[in-house]
Structure formats: structure tokens, C-alpha cells
Amino acid sequence: MGSSANVPRRSFLQSTVAAGAAGLFLTGKESTAAEKSSATPAIQPGTTILFQGDSITDAGRKKDQGDTPNKQPGLGNGYAWMAASSLLTGPDGSSLTIYNRGISGNKVHQLADRWDQDCLVLKPNVLSILIGVNDIWHRLNGKYDGTVKTYEDDYRALLQRTKEALPDVTLVICEPFVLRCGAVNDKWFPEFDKFRASAAKLAKEFETVWVPFQSMFDEAVQYAPPEHWAGDGVHPSPFGASLMASTWLRTVQNA
Amino acid sequence: MGSSANVPRRSFLQSTVAAGAAGLFLTGKESTAAEKSSATPAIQPGTTILFQGDSITDAGRKKDQGDTPNKQPGLGNGYAWMAASSLLTGPDGSSLTIYNRGISGNKVHQLADRWDQDCLVLKPNVLSILIGVNDIWHRLNGKYDGTVKTYEDDYRALLQRTKEALPDVTLVICEPFVLRCGAVNDKWFPEFDKFRASAAKLAKEFETVWVPFQSMFDEAVQYAPPEHWAGDGVHPSPFGASLMASTWLRTVQNA
């Protein structure tokens, strides 16, 4: 996998649940994961969780039901819904409020355009963002002229604005990922790795939780081919989405 | 839900992760869950895990690849594979050995017929069993004359035989479940509840981990209709399987 050529995969993945592994991708929040017993869990009774992002998060949700938390139509059919259904049926699940406001095709600047009504007004306690694949894909398609610098600058501004409006929010940055199949060819690399590195840099800078989806999928292709996880290389199958939900839950609940 | 009419749902579900809630479904293993810090986790580096059961576990696995652990074809497309993929890509995942030997249509006596080659010889450290829906369904269809007593007696004998051959195995009994849709009609009740109660009784008797799938789905139908989780009421959709995997992982990892 060209997308992880320079990163030791196993230690990278483990860095989300244990302190000690050094490097670019170890964020402040992860450093505290080993001290779980003294930390306050990110998801507690009464927590409001918001999933934000592009089509991978959207996953066919009913936009006209976006104001109704906790119900499948408004949460879609992807990793966000799968993680939500696990939380809702788990301990204290009925006390949670979970929204999904991902929109297909979104890049960072499009999140920013709708951030007041689709994030800040909801006052999430936990805000999970997965964004980046369109920021490179639409450029490769000639539909967009933003660069990795645009991505990082726009993303930083969005996070700053969020922290100012919601100083106590637990931020969760999900690593952008692709599988090497379908629409994803060699033209994506090494450019895509730079987008991942920018997301990781921001996770460190803002001391967010970091969900290592690319490293997870880099592990997963040992057990099933890339197409099993995402037919077109970008949009996860139910198996890819289920694995993402599981890793999201493990990472956020251990943060 | 007739299937859980006599059980307080929320406390039932929570009984798998915290001691305190009393009653039929609280097993010895669950009592120790609150003392996690001093207990040895069921799944450690090097653990061999075996999933056993019927079609819900089988989920289209390639029977000729049943001897190859950890790969998707031999593990199928259901909750067992989804739980396995999460474990395999998680911490110490590459040290695990995970098999699936579920077979569609199986009742308890058919597990017993193939137990030497499909369980004991594999020497699992963790053995997860989900069995029971065919024991009632085939009776309702007139294909089988076993009763709930047959189920319980056969299941007890199988567990005794397992404990004698593998005294250190961690047993995981999964609660048989149905959704109220598709093939599942009023004729199933209250008979089905007795099968669930027998499985729970055995979990207590053998101090196994207990995975409360029926109570999980009884919670889940608040958030999406029964058909979303299992179109025919018996065989989970990818959403049902993903939720099962998540609950299986949370329960077994907290046991």
C-alpha cells in the first residue's frame, strides 16, 4: 500500500489505544488514553454526538429528517449509523442524542458554509469529522483547484471556529482513507498521503481524538481484498462501514 | 415485544456489563465484570476464538476454507466475520486465530454430531455458541419433534462435554433471538421465550459469558423497524450483523 509506505503499520494502529509510540500521528488526546481510569469518558450519559463529513458519513441519510436524532432514516446506512446503533442499544444509550449531518460531495469549505446550522446550533459534546477524500478527488477530476494547503488551512479555520463557539467540545478527527481499487489509482499517490498527514497534524495541534481509518484498512486488506471493504475504493461496503464503526467506538470510548 | 414481556429491558441489557441487576439472566461471569481491573481478559494476545452455530453464524462462509483462520471467505459475511475483522485489525490482532464453524440449519444435536472435528480439535480459548432458532423453527414447520426440553438437555450435554475436554475454555453463550417480522409470527410465542430462558439458564449454570442479543434487538427496534435488522425476522441484515458484532465485542471484552 503506497498510502502507508512510510509508517510502521502496527505501531501506528496501536497508538490510538496506548501511549508510547511516537511520531506524527500521536496526538495529545492519545497520550492520555493509557490513563483511562482517571479520565472522564468522552461519551457519558446525556452526551450529544454529531457526525460530520461527506458521502461516507452521509450514506443515504434522509436530509428532511436531519433534525430527528437517534433514528435510522436521519442517520443513514453507514459507519455513523452503525456506531450510533451500538451506542443507543448499549449502556445509557437511551440518554444519548446522536445526529448525522454529513453531505455527499462535501469538501472542507462546504462544511464551513453550513457550520452554524449543521454543527454549532446543535451544541454537540462530541463532534466527529471525516473529510478530505473529495478535496483530492475533485481536484484529480479537474472539478476543483484546492490543494493540500487549502485543505489544511480551511480545516484549521473550521476547528478554530468550532473551539471558540464550543470550548468544551470533544473533537474527533477521522483519518481520510482510500482502498487501492475501483476509482483509486496511482494518480492519487503520494498526494493523498499529504492530505492524511494534514489531518493528523491538525489532530495533534487541536489535541483531538484521532481515528486511524487508513491504518485500519491497511491492516484489513490482509484478511479480505480491498473490494470487500469498498468497491470503488472510496465508499465503504457494509463490511467496511461496520469495521469503521467498531474502530470509531473503540477509539473514542478509550480516549 | 412478546419476546421480552416479562423482563425489564434496560436492566436486562445492562446486566452484561455491570453487576447488581438480579434475576434469571445474570450469570456468574457477569458478576465479575465489575471487577475488570483484577480479572484476566477473555481475549488476550495469542487467543484462539471459535464461532459456532447455525445459519446466522455460518452467513455464507466457504466450507472448504474452514481450516484457514482469519480470512474472510472462511469466516462468512455475518456477525462472526464482523467481530473478527474488528479484533484482527485491533490491538494484538495479528496474534489471534479466529475460526467460524457455524452451519446453516443446525440444531444442538447437529452441533454435537460434529463437535470433535468442528470444535474440540481446534482447542479454542474462547468458544462462542449461538444456537436455538432452528430448534423451534423446524418444530413449527413440522420437520422436527424436539421440544425445549430436548434443546436444554442436548445443550447441557454439549457444554459438559466441552468443559471436560477443554477445562480452561471461556464459554460464550449468545442469546437466541428473533425480530417480529417476516417468517416470525405469533405462533412462535411464548414458546420462543422458553428457548431463550433455557439458554440463559445454561449460561448461569456453566458460568459463561452471556451475550444478550434478544434484549439488544428489543432496544434496537426503537431506532429502526424490525425489517431493518432482519428482513425475515431470523437472518440479520448487515445492520443487524454489525450491531451483533459490536455487542458481542463489548460483552466478551468486558467479561
Which features characterize this protein?
homodimer; 255 residues; alpha/beta; Rossmann fold; five-stranded parallel β-sheet; 13 helices; globular; disordered N terminus
Tell me what the structure shows:
Two copies of one chain form a homodimer. With 255 residues, chain A is α/β, with parallel strands linked by helices. Helix content of chain A is 43%, strand content 9%. The first copy, chain A, has helices at residues 9-14, 28-31, 55-58, 72-75, 79-89, 108-113, 115-118, 133-140, 148-165, 191-205, 213-220, 226-229, 238-254; strands spanning 48-53, 97-100, 126-130, 170-174, 209-211. In chain A, helix 5 (79-89) crosses helix 13 (238-254). The radius of gyration of chain A is 17 Å and the shape is globular. Mean pLDDT of chain A is 88; it is low at 1-38. The interface between A and B is large, with 38 and 38 residues.
Ordered list of secondary-structure elements with their pairings:
The structure is a homodimer of 255-residue chains.
Chain A: H1 9-14, H2 28-31, E1 48-53, H3 55-58, H4 72-75, H5 79-89, E2 97-100, H6 108-113, H7 115-118, E3 126-130, H8 133-140, H9 148-165, E4 170-174, H10 191-205, E5 209-211, H11 213-220, H12 226-229, H13 238-254
Parallel strand pairs in A: 1-2, 1-3, 3-4, 4-5
Helix pairs in contact in A: 5-13, 9-10
